[in-house]
Amino acid sequence: MKSEGLFPDGVTFLGYLYACNHGGLVEEGLRVFKIMIEVHNLKPKMEHFARVVDMLGHARRLNEAKSFIDEMGIESDVLVWEALLSACRVHGR
C-alpha cells in the first residue's frame, strides 16, 4: 500500500482486526491495533475497541478483555459490552 501512496484508514484496520479475530490471530490483532494508534496516529472508534474485545473473547481471554475495556480511556458503549457478554455466555462464564 505504501509503495502506491496509499495509507490505511480506520476502515482498513477494522477489516484487518475482523480477519485476525476470525482467523484466531489474537497476538497479530493486538499488534495491528497498536500500530493503528502509534504508527498511523489513528484514534480508535468504538467499533475497533469492540472488535478487540470480541477477538479476546473468542480466544477465551475474558479477563484480558475486561482489562482492555477498563483501560480504553473512553466510556465504553453497548457494542463493547455486548462483545464481552456474548463471549462470557459462549464460554459459560
UniProtKB/TrEMBL annotation:
A molecular-function term among this protein's GO annotations:
RNA binding
Query: Entry's InterPro entries?
Result: PPR_At4g14850-like_plant (IPR046960), TPR-like_helical_dom_sf (IPR011990)
Question: Could you give a single Gene Ontology term from the biological process aspect?
Answer: RNA modification
TM region positions: none
Identify this protein by name. Answer: Pentatricopeptide repeat-containing protein, mitochondrial
Which species does the entry assign this protein to?
Answer: Vitis vinifera
